Target: Amino acid transporter ANT1-like protein
Amino acid sequence: TRYKLKFILFFFLFSGWVGAPLIALLGINAAYAGVVLAKSWMIVEERWPELKENCRYPYSAIGSKAYGPKTRAIVSLCLHTNLIGSCVVVLLLCAQIIHDLTAHHFNICFCYWILIIAAIICPFLFFETPKEFWPAAALALGTTSIAVCVILWEMYKDHISGDFSHVRYPQPSLKTFFLTFGTIMFAYGATASFPTFQNDMRKRHKFPTAVIIAFIVLLALYIPIASVGYYVYGDLVEENVILTLEDGLNKTVIEILMASHLFFAFLLLANAPIQEIESWLKIPNGFNVKRLATRILVLLFIVFLGETIPSFGKILNLIGGSAIALLSFVFPPMFYMKLCSMNDPQWPKRNISAWEKLWLLQVIIIGIIGGSAGTLSALYEILSPKAFIAPCYINLNCK
Model:
């Protein structure tokens, strides 16, 4: 699961009820793209066995073997934009939740919470690969699942006890629809990390099955909370749905669970770009001073971005419409079809059926159209003078 469920609901506000089938369609497309990406990595390992044992950047390696070194550079750029940007979103969202949770007890600015949470995260970044902190993934899933159940219960209580006769369901415009297209793509942005996780597995051939199960769980979380939440709150929903709920014990439990989830999600997201940066710098495996310095500098860069653009929604839409659209929807089918079409006497032949090619092509087309429109809409929002929010180091947010 991902922290994205908190703004999946906000997506409905600008897409209307068409958001539900769109969430499902993009979820199915992202799942299929994840499966073929996993198959692509197995093909690469089969043809180039030297990559099996020591490859810190499997996604980039897939692009390189499919289309050459220039593609590898493009994939690396997208990968870093996606995962570093996602880390910024997670950090900001975690700070927002903790700030709301502690507002009645501590007078600490939101901008300061960003620094505090980063300091707490720092020691945990020194684990080498995801296999060294697999409990983080299990805890992230557990905390999110419990939180979703509690959120749905709170929504039900609000619906039966409150007066929602004034709730409106605004008609989406083309501009707002494409703006939030980036949001829904962001919700399926985990694909960028899949090759790294697969590379750490002993039974890598089972990873496609794990991808399918993961996306079934995602859809089971996303669609109910988005549909029920939009039905109950309509245009009253906040960018972070947790802030829409009534204050009380259940809301406090939800905030604690989601803050815990975000903490663990940050560790998983940050690992892939950190490993590739360490590979560029030729930093040896194992704990050493160079690794320590590199990971601290990456964390400081993430903190700087968060303090510069303290509105996570704007970053989310931009990343979702650009880097994630490419990494989760466009590149996987492209690389898979290219690898399957390559011939060598020593390689087993791989054929793709006509219907599978058609499906892969529609995944690519939807990814390109939705990603392009979402990116342009997000840039318009970010550059709009009315939408400007001063950086934390200029104007502290102590609300």
